[in-house]
């Protein structure tokens, strides 16, 4: 059979995600400039020798004309990317609406938006219709590029409807789906009007993966309680067909961060930062400006610490990098002004003519600047209210071999399950507790810091993104083979 004939080391992997790992800027009618975003996922998948990865997703720009679409597709093909073109209305209803205003907050335990809960079932329904339509558009593109034997790996909450669409095209397609956010308790998931339809579409996949065992367990419970299906140690069974469900905790490409610290520009930048903040301990937060990240709560905890520890006021600084995100969604706009207001108030209260306690940036930093910052930090504050994994905590640890700084980490981030033993774990809602943990971190002995760092550094070095991707894909291949054997018995 052709499927078997393709040597394993040349297996193609189609990675389907809402967003392609590129930023595209239009330079003319038929010309585009592309920049590949060298994030963790990209380097993870490029690093896996056994398969040849291609990306399918939205390029993040509106391209209404055919000339532009053709030119962009051509430019993207060189980067092994295949675009899905979504018009503005679909983006509004599917991406801003259903994905980021409904699923994202719900999966992070922030509930459904009030307006939708009350009257506007029409708006909910039209957003869900757009979500399904968008997922169907992704499926059309996958189907067009699919070759027998390919592995199709769907990513995240944007594409929960995709496994079903793909299996309708071709029931033999090997389909995996991975969620990068938490999957909430079934009691939360059951409030979603489209709860059953989404679960059923995900179950069409052969393998369903999550970052932690708890998220996998919540998903299986949702399927048993809401759909009445049978949960087994392997996954979920429906009329003899098994959907395998398991945990695959992601990691980072730690060597990339470790190597960056040897780059002369980075060393120079670290030197400048050390001089700039000489005599003060550096605390760092790096987050997308998202309500799940708990930025206001973190800043309020820092204020409480300053309030209660007058002797530290001129000896510590908090650098908060808040990367703007999803700026068309009103909730995100509100959060930006809320954070600005709190930062302004605290700097007004504790600042002097020459120094302020909080430096807040509304932008991202380039990779090298970020590495330098991680390396000079004494205490990192990752206080997400909920977070699928949170790789900032991993990146910080990877850059701390020299300094052995302290990680304060929310117990509601997936990373708490892997870095919990080395970090100071906190409940981010408890501002008193977070303020106390800041004191504990700043006063920690070098011996204790070393011990905690060793644990975390070892974990970050040995659980890489590449290993994560390899494990998921080989498990998907095995799952499909096992299912075929079961049927042929
Ligand atoms: C989270 C999601 C990703 C998403 C990223 C950035 O990490 O799990 O799927 O790509 O946020 O958000 P954006 O909406 O800009 O793609």
Automatic annotation (TrEMBL):
Supply the enzyme class, top level. Answer: transferase
GO terms under cellular component: cytosol
A biological process from GO = trehalose biosynthetic process
Q: What is its EC number?
A: 2.4.1.15
One MF term in GO for this entry?
alpha,alpha-trehalose-phosphate synthase (UDP-forming) activity
What the record says about family reads: In the C-terminal section; belongs to the trehalose phosphatase family. In the N-terminal section; belongs to the glycosyltransferase 20 family.
Protein name, UniProt field: alpha,alpha-trehalose-phosphate synthase (UDP-forming)
> Which section of the whole protein is represented?
82 to 570 of 943
């Amino acid at each position: 059979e052709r499927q078997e004939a393709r040597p394993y080391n040349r297996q193609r992997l189609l990675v389907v995600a809402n967003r392609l790992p590129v930023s595209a800027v239009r330079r003319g009618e038929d010309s585009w400039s592309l920049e590949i975003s060298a994030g963790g996922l990209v380097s993870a998948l490029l690093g896996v020798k056994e398969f040849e990865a291609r990306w399918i997703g939205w390029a993040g720009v509106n391209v209404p004309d055919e000339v532009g679409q053709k030119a962009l597709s051509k430019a993207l093909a060189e980067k092994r990317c295949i675009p899905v073109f979504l018009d503005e209305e679909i983006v509004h209803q599917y991406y801003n609406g259903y994905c980021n205003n409904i699923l994202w907050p719900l999966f992070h335990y922030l509930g459904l938006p009030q307006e939708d809960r009350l009257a506007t079932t029409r708006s909910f329904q039209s957003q869900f219709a757009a979500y399904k339509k968008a997922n169907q558009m992704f499926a059309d593109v996958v189907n067009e590029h699919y070759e027998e034997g390919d592995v199709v790996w769907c990513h995240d909450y944007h594409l929960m409807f995709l496994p079903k669409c793909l299996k309708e095209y071709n029931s033999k397609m090997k389909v995996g789906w991975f969620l990068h956010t938490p999957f909430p308790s079934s009691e939360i998931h059951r409030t979603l009007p489209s709860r059953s339809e989404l679960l059923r579409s995900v179950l069409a996949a052969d393998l369903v993966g999550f970052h932690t065992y708890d998220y996998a367990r919540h998903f299986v419970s949702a399927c048993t309680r809401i759909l009445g299906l049978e949960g087994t140690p392997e996954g979920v069974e429906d009329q003899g067909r098994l959907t395998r469900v398991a945990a695959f905790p992601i990691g980072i490409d730690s060597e990339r961060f470790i190597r960056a610290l040897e780059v002369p520009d980075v060393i120079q930048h670290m030197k400048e930062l050390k001089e700039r903040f000489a005599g003060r301990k550096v605390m760092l937060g790096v987050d997308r400006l998202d309500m799940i990240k708990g930025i206001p709560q973190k800043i309020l905890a820092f204020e409480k610490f300053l309030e209660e520890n007058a002797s530290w006021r001129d000896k510590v600084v908090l650098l908060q990098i808040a990367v703007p995100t999803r700026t068309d969604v009103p909730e995100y706009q509100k959060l930006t002004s809320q954070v600005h207001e709190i930062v302004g108030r605290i700097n007004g209260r504790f600042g002097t003519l020459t120094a302020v306690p909080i430096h807040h940036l509304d932008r991202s930093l380039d990779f090298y600047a970020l590495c330098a910052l991680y390396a000079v930090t004494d205490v990192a504050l990752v206080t997400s209210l909920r977070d699928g994994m949170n790789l900032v905590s991993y990146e910080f640890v990877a850059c701390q071999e020299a300094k052995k700084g302290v990680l304060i980490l929310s117990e509601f981030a997936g990373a708490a399950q892997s870095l919990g033993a080395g970090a100071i774990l906190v409940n981010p809602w408890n501002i008193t507790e977070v303020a106390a943990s800041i004191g504990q971190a700043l006063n920690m002995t070098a011996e204790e810091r070393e011990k905690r760092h060793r644990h975390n550094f070892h974990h970050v070095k040995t659980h890489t993104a590449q290993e994560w991707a390899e494990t998921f894909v080989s498990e998907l291949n095995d799952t499909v083979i096992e299912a075929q054997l079961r049927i042929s018995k």
